[in-house]
## 1
Amino acid sequence: MASKKATALLQWLQKRAEQDRENLRLFVFGAAAFFAGLGIILMAQKYLLPSLAQEIVSLAGLILAAMGALSAALGYIALSILRIIRLTRKND
């Protein structure tokens, strides 16, 4: 059962490694979302008075930044490490 899951995961990773354009799009979208979230946090700290509204806006920016960072990390991993996997599998 475990080897079946590992084989399925490896096949999925190989398919994902073939999609360079989508991986780059995921990385760029993630980076943009991260910096937009960071910008929201900085703007809330600078332009809003200390209040519950400031904290809610900052929390929204933090959530956006975290989702963007995760997306950018996945895109970067797919672009770099999965490409190495793809190149080594072609030589087998």
## 2
Amino acid sequence: MVALAVRPATTDSERGQSRLSRSERVIEVRLTREERMILALLADGYLLDGIARRMCTSNRTLRRRIRGVCDRLGVQTPIQAVAWAARRGLI
């Protein structure tokens, strides 16, 4: 489980206020062992075919799982998901 603190967007009137008065939400992001493995293999440069073979799954299933991870992390592309995981030391 990875906890990610997200600060809400501020307006011009809120920027003058103290940062301590802002509320922060903590979003829990849970990645399974297989999802972390997929991100690690992507980071190592494996193509989807190679990852699918290694994980004994179809390309279609793998693409669906990658899309689900991206949605959960709030990123647009698998590259962004890999960068997100790398910054947090998951891969």
## 3
Amino acid sequence: MTDRVTRAFLSDESLHGVMERLDLPPALRAVYGERLVPRPFFLERSVAERVAEDIRQLFDLLVSLPARLFDGSLARFAGALGIPPAQVALLSAERPPFHGRADIYRVGDGFRLLEFNSGSQLGGRDLGDLARAIHEVPELQGFVRRHGLTFVHPVEELLRAVGSGTVAFLEAGGMLRKFGKGFASLKESCARLGVDVLLGELEDLTERNGYLHLDGTRLDTVVRFFSLDNAVGHTDAFVKATRTEVFTPLTSFLYGNKSTLALLSRHRDGLEDHERALVDRLLPWTRGLDDVEPDYAREHRENLILKVTDEFAGTGIHAGWLHDDRQWSELLDDRRGQPFVLQERVRPTLDTVPGDERPWLTTWGWFVTDEGFAGMSIRSMPDAAGAVVSYGGNPHTRVSGLLLH
């Protein structure tokens, strides 16, 4: 069912050019300005919060897996996910804070999870400034007031979780330069909210008197964007700097690994009734590739998607329905013994875009923290443009902002 405010927007042609008249901050415009969906998106706040609560409960289930399946051993759990020993050595058994982004398709009146990204290394937070710009554009003000529209800014929610003091966003291995425009937009967004964050890389840190320092500046908090793999061999300062908070810990990576979803899906029958109902409502059937009979995987090509377990931006994803039987069989054979999962195909409800007769495929990126719903990253593209709605991995993908009512 189409949201009532969406129907009202689509039926009012005087509003259809609103995305061309946004007052975007310079760094945000440099990243997204040429790739905007020609419409905003709308959602009931109660729905946003209900789905966020489902995601929070799903995270609780994921965090419970070491105890349920591995006698509480985090090392055995990480080993079952295929995490190398050098990375396992960096992990802590302490429960990480709940902070993540769930990528979701809308299916009728419900929502289905594609993947869950756990930890602070999340893209798309700066799209909160896109939502703000939509909310403030003069041509939309009557519509905003009439429907009581608001927005939630993911960067504001991140800063709230981090707290006060000197904050640095940290990458590693040259990634700060590679994703320079994105970090400039994120820094710009923080500045608009009154926080001047520093940018740096893991290799640039030093430790003194229990604090991490970046270019001579003492840090109260670092927000981690580097990966578990990046951290290997570069954690001496972190171990010594017990007075600088790291948000979020490296252990968060375990619960964003697609193999963790496969474990949960595989063991659904052992869950309590309410837990099983949650998994069935939110999570498509997911299995490790090596846990699926080859004949089954080949025969159900049209209804399966193959995903590498620990990549992002659409890397290593292959939709069965976009391959012929021979190509699919070769893919499956080549990936056997490697960290891949098979997931049931989700067939989403497609969206309408003004001035475009093509149906559009939208991924809703639900940001969620311990406090609940923390904003949205909207990515969309024409349905015929592929199977993965990835801004970095598919040039047809565009972005938009979400307004709540």
## 4
Amino acid sequence: MKSRLYYVDRLRIFAFAILLVYHSSASFLPDINWLIHSDKTSTTLSLVMDFPRAWRLALLFFVSGMGAAFTFGSAASLSFLRKRTFRLLIPLLFAMAVIVVPQVWYERMYENGYQGSLLEFWTTRYFTEGRYPKGNFTWAHMWFVAYLLVMSVICYPIFGYLVQPGNKIAAWFERTSKTGFIYLFFLLPLALNLALSPFFPKQTNALYNDGAWFAVWASWFGLGFLMARYHSVLIETIVGRRFVSAAIALVTSGLLYRYAWMVPEDQAIGSYAQNTPLFKAGIFLLAWSMILTLVGFAARHFNQPSEKLAAMNRLVFPLYIVHQTVTVAALYYVLPLDMPVAVSYSIVTAATILLSVLLAVCVDLLPGPARVLFGLSGHGRKIAASEPDRQLSR
């Protein structure tokens, strides 16, 4: 396929929108000890968020894998690694050194009573007291970017092998994806996670001790790459099966609510805190069926170009970089007002979306070199907006 997949841009925007809504709720969920945690929590909100919690990250990594296919080219090339490193490493280091700092500062003030200024905290405590959570230095939500960078390096030779003409594994993937066996691909992240869990029992987002879940995210990333690579021969099947995919997602969600999310812990098949093999199988199947559902419907109904789409897609990465700092700041000022959870959550969500979008727009107006710090093209806004669409070839 030679034209840009506009629906992938829309899926990317949708995935990050879900992320903003979810992160805004984290403080109010009873089973999550987030950066700033509200004394008032909501079981109802937790039940609502249990559903996107199962697939939101899988979708993000899957869409990122599809995006990687755009830049990989027709064959393995070191330019892929250069582009990915430049696009991901600079924003990661900048965010860890600057953007993330207020998050920890607000947390230390709210949870520990710290009274120093942001400048004082940044210059005297952030870099010198060790790693978070005992210390202060952290990559916070930027773990996602760090994982993408490491995945790109690890997957580079694998992708290079898979795209070689006549590759048997790629041919098998193409054949299988045209049949109902496509729904069994969730077994890949499940098998890898279960095999590695004895060595890496907890999800940490710290990379060095998170092998079981890194393998899960890398699986979604790789499936996204392959799906985009063989898009022209697979998309009709995915679109044609979109109602089947939706039905599987619906049934799986119902079973999870019935046997995991809405029952007492001692009667549940598992939970996000107690990741039993059966529970993992359920959420991975839900994640995969939701991905296929969203791809199928988006490719069928939302594959048209749009100037607004191009602008929104350009702003997604800087918006992601700044959003959690905005959320934590909003929580710091809203929670002391002691309002009902529904009101506090609504205010925090609105503040997160509006201020993050505003900051992303401001970033887009920065001069060339400064834009690179937020993952944007260094050529300037007008040139970046007029760049031709990347091509995706089989």
